[in-house]
Amino acid sequence: MTGDRAPGTQRGAYRWYVLGVLMAALALSLIDRQILTILAGPVKADLNLSDAELGLLYGTAFAVFYSLFGIPLGRLADVWVRTRLMALSLFGWSLMTIFSGLAANLGQLAVARMGVGVGEATANPVAYSLLSDYFPKEKRATAIAIYSSGVALGVGGSLWVGGAVVDLWTHWFGAGSTPFGLKGWQAAFIAVGLPGILLAALVLNLREPRRGATDGMPEATAATAPWSAFWAEVFAILPPFTLINLVRLKAPRAVWRTHILVMLAIAAVAIGMAIFTNAIEPAVKRHVLFIVGGFEITGHTLQWTALSVGVYGIFSWAQSLRLRDAPAFALILKSPPMVALLAAAALEMIMNYGLTAFTPLYAVTTFHLPLARVGLEMGIVAGLAGLIGTNLGGVVADYFRSKNPSGRLYVSLFAMVAPAPLVPVMLAAPSLEVLLAWWMLVGTVVTAWLAGIASSTQDLVLPRMRGTSAAALTLSMTMFGLGLGPYTTGLIADVTGSLYTGIVSVYAVVPLMALCMIVAIRTIGRSEATLVARARAAGEPLNP
Questions:
Q1: pLDDT of 83 higher than 50
Q2: What is the SS3 assignment for 297?
Q3: Is the C or the N end of the chain the one with fewer CB within 10 Å?
Q4: Nearest alpha carbon to residue 325 among 538, 475, 536, 70
Q5: What is the pLDDT of residue 8?
Q6: 180 in the Ramachandran plot: left (φ > 0), alpha (ψ -120 to 50) or beta?
Q7: Is 208:5 a contact under the CB 8 Å cutoff?
């Protein structure tokens, strides 16, 4: 079933209440995800991590599972009760955050981070889909911008809460015995995980709007066998089920040939990158996690193994989508502006995640200040900057969209390019106070890009595909942005001995990102105008 109850919920104050609850859920997801940034120092010390291994833990361990499970969960959001799905996921990722606080080594913490990633994969697909059915197209970017403010609240809250809990824990217990033997960073994970379990009850009681009503294309009947659709997507992304999936879909010989060649190419690149990164990082900063058959498994080996599985999963899903749902494949992965936006978002997040993962640690180690002070001050500034930037970006994007079909994307392009010359100046600040002033400016600009791109990707598909479209956007931002940004930043910092160099270096992708945005700007108008015709040509049963 799709849960199409309460057909009038798209109007009035209730939709703003829904928006508020979804924003709170997003804020908690970012707190649970981002708290590792302010806890980086004590976690590194306790678990004996290098910067690259910290980047792996913060980024790839979370990103691969978040990205891959975003595909089947995004599909489930298109065919099942979205509020119920969101509530279950919120409960699950909050529980895994609590488990993070019980971790005693790198492996246990990595597994907990993977669990958080699986749970949080539902947030954006469900929220984007719900908000698109509560708000009409002309208000959609504003609604998504307000929802996206949860990112700023979460990032800011994670810095403040994480630093405060660690310092309070140390003050209360000092070097003596602590409750259950927990360290300060472990207590911080538990503290931020508990509220999500309570919020899940509110999400469960939200009303489900009728799909497509705000666009004049309401779905008249409920979907059947929603969990079959979910498991079909799982089989499309997880090896070795991917091969079984191709058999089930009766894939032609050409598809099999392409599949095997791409799988071998991904494996070869992963092996090459593992050898290269193991060779370039100083041995003193690289420790062996375990040995299998005489082969040393390091953090770099895990990084490229996990990322290769993720990239293979994306490719397998795309092949499967083409065979199972040709219209969705055509509108999402054969649309020039959509592909360009997905690529631009991935490149943007490589920079953003590298910046947010290590700037708090940079401030603590550079200015030799207490964790609580850095967390509080950077958290307040990050939250305020994110609220201003995200909401202003949405409102301005909607304004320019009313003037030009590409208007939203001009706003996003500016917000994506402008921080590049500002970040090196910010990191060269002589004091925390000066760094915070630049942090405010950079944070305001850098958070203004998302609403324009997210709302544009929703406008480029049919209502039944919105959850899948949102999952594709989240997948590109997370798999490549989070999977590569923190790790690359940390690796360069290890090799050069400078966090400054590590953070600044990832901004080398700005020209390629700008090129992708220009392609999207030049093609989006025609793609929106021909949406229905292209869907019909791909096999979608729409009325003339």
A1: yes
A2: strand
A3: C
A4: 538
A5: 45
A6: left
A7: yes
- In terms of Cβ atoms closer than 10 Å to its own Cβ (0-12, 13-18, 19+), residue 433 is exposed
**Which one-letter amino acid corresponds to residue 184?**
G
Instruction: Count Cα neighbours of 297 within 13 Å in the Cβ-side half-sphere.
Output: 10
Torsion of CA 27, 28, 34, 38, to 10 degrees: 100
Q: Is the pLDDT of residue 125 over 60?
A: yes
Q: How far apart are CA 127 and CA 470, in angstroms?
A: 9
What is the distance of C-alpha 161 from the center of its chain? Answer: 21
The helix/strand/coil state of 223 is coil
Cβ atoms 149, 390 nearer than 8 A = yes
What distance in Å separates the CA atoms of residue 301 and residue 24, rounded to the nearest whole number? Answer: 37
Give 230 or 524, the one with higher predicted confidence: 524
Task: Say which amino acid occupies 282.
Answer: P
Residues 6+ apart with CB under 8 A from 476: 342, 343, 345, 346
- Note whether 513 and 347 are within 8 A (CB): yes
Q: What is the pLDDT of residue 425?
A: 95
Looking at the predicted structure, is the pLDDT value of residue 16 above 60? yes
**Amino acid symbol at 308:** S
* Angle between helical axes of 184-204 and 82-100 (0-180°, round to 10): 170
What residue spans of 368-465 are helical by DSSP H?
A: 371-403, 407-417, 422-427, 432-446, 450-459
Residue closest to 103 by CA, chosen among 187, 197, 196? 187
Place of tokens 């940079």: 362
Q: Is 5 helix (H, G, I), strand (E, B) or coil?
A: coil
pLDDT: which is higher, 184 or 170: 184
Return the higher-pLDDT residue of 448 and 296. 448
Q: Per the structure block, which two tokens stand in for 39?
A: 């806890």
Greatest mean pLDDT range, 10-14, 43-47, 392-396, 422-426: 422-426
How many residues does the structure list for the chain? 544
Mean pLDDT over the full length of the chain: 85
Alpha-helix runs per DSSP H in 325-335: 326-333
Q: What is the mean pLDDT of residues 313-338?
A: 90
Give the pLDDT confidence of 64-79 residue by residue, as tens digits: 888 888 778 877 888 8
